[in-house]
Amino acid sequence: MHRFSSSLAAGRRDNLPLASLSRTGLEKLFHSWLGASGRRYICSVYAVGAQPVFDRSRAVVAAVRRDGAHSQITFVFAPNPEDDDFAFWMARARACGACEWHVHLLAATPEARAAILSDLAPARRLAA
Q1: How far apart are CA 102 and CA 60, in angstroms?
Q2: Which of 35, 57, 79, 112 would give a disulfide with 119, using CB separation of 3.0 to 4.6 Å?
Q3: Closest to 27 (Cα-Cα) out of 14, 44, 52, 11
Q4: What distance in Å separates the CA atoms of residue 13 and residue 69, rounded to the nearest whole number?
Q5: Which H helix or E strand runs over 15?
Q6: pLDDT tens digit sequence for 5-31
């Protein structure tokens, strides 16, 4: 299982609600993050207090902390599709002050998941 920790700088356009959903009532349900490669990742947003239902074999999950109007990834992980490890991640998210899960569901292979984990790794700081 891949794990990364630290913090990702919340920058100008590196993390945003989806503009296409503004004023629809859905804008708080989806978020976009810019990876270190420049690739944009669209994520579904869930409260940390709940365990979202999703295909664990295709997911990359970011624990996100809010600081006013800014969001910050505290860590990213790939859930184990064969083990119920979410209680561990939920405890870690709470300890880091995260209040949301941002779940990217388009990683079709283990290699794609590893690439996305690396690209969204919070240890990589984006220019402020």
Answers
A1: 8
A2: 35
A3: 44
A4: 13
A5: strand 15-17
A6: 333 333 434 666 666 666 666 777 888
